[in-house]
Design a protein that fits this description.
Number of strands: 5
Order of helices and strands: HHHHHHHEHHEHEHHHHHHHHHEEH
Strand content: 5-15%
Number of helices: 20
Structural class: alpha/beta
Largest sheet: 5 strands, mixed
Strand order of the largest sheet: 1-2-3-5-4
Length: 441
Amino acid sequence: MPSLGAHQLSFEEQKQRAADIVRLLSMYINILDSYVIEFFSENLWEKVPRSWRPTLSALTAPQLASLLLENRSSAGQESVWPLSLLAFRAAAHGLALPRQPRGVSPPREAIPGSSREPEEFQANKSQSSRLGHLFRKHVRPKKQHEIRRLAGLVKKLCNATGCEHVVDMGSGQGVRELSLHSLDPPRHLVHQVLSEEEGKLLEELGQGQGSPPLVLAALHACGDLGPAALRLFAQCPGARGLALVSCCYMKASEEGGYPMSAWVRSLPAHQLPYKLRETACHAVEDFAQRLRGQSPALRSHCYRAALEVIIRHLHPHLRRPPLHAGGKAHLLPFPDYAREGLRKLGLHSGMSWDVAQVEALLEQGNKVLAYFCLTLSLAPVIETLILLDRVIYLQEQGFHCQLLPLFEPRFSPRNFVLLAAKLSGQLSQLLCPADGASCPK
């Protein structure tokens, strides 16, 4: 049975979903809170349940995409999976919110070399066919797709809440199209949206007696900007609506970023370490496409994990140093990759290593990839928990809100918009009927 979207869950069901996710994540925290570059140096394969190891290590890259990340059948699947692994996969996909936008046909199954762009970019990969030149100028295709669909949804939110003014929080060039829905030209305020600054921002929004009602909009509100937008909506008397797309959950401060709701805060083991919040930001659909195409870049995970062993041999106290190896580093023979990596780290690049040992590590590339996919399969679940926490936070204060997937996830991975309004009635009915006919196209 497919997972229900947040708009189809009652408040109590949303709280239960959050509790179920916390329980699932706590069961696999030792795997989730680890770094694949330490696969060999920390012997991470031992963290995988013993009964799962033969099955996972035997899966090809396309099978990892189909069976683990996408929960679909795969031709050539011969092994019988352990029941506990089947249960893990079912829970991962059953608890995550569905990411395909309503009113948009799902993309055809990707094959090597196929396009991942939405239909509006089929004729010209850099220019949306549904935007005028003014709104495409100096805007990347991904952002064109996002601001076009978000602008349509903001217009519906304005109509539903009776607002003619939109306050854009950090959407950058997207304000050009969003401003079409305001009677006045854009007025820019410069603020760091920190907790101590939120009161000043409320004052500058001009929300005195008799001020017109407004809608807050934020496209890819990074880190603390997302929680700040939620608090501003809750505290600003004139803010009738909110359209929020968040990203970079790991950049939010520990205090005030997560959890926001009293419900999630009350759950045992609700904490999300930095690594889990970072995992929530991965582009799962894009990585699945690379797996299906068996991209040569996939070997970079094993390369980097093997290099970590060499680094620790040279400097035992050095852990996971950041290394920008370059986009084509995986095409090098490993000795050249390792020497270049050591050089960039300022280590002795002429240092020799046990060639036989390294070759044995490189032969375990399938295990490295399987381990990474195991953690990646829970990325949508972690994001679901973060987003549900924010929805529950608003509902605890009596506001109406919905979570809807708005963007094509293979093109724009952070594709959920949180809609909130201070009105009676269901947002899903006012903004986006179930058949998708009135959704932004």
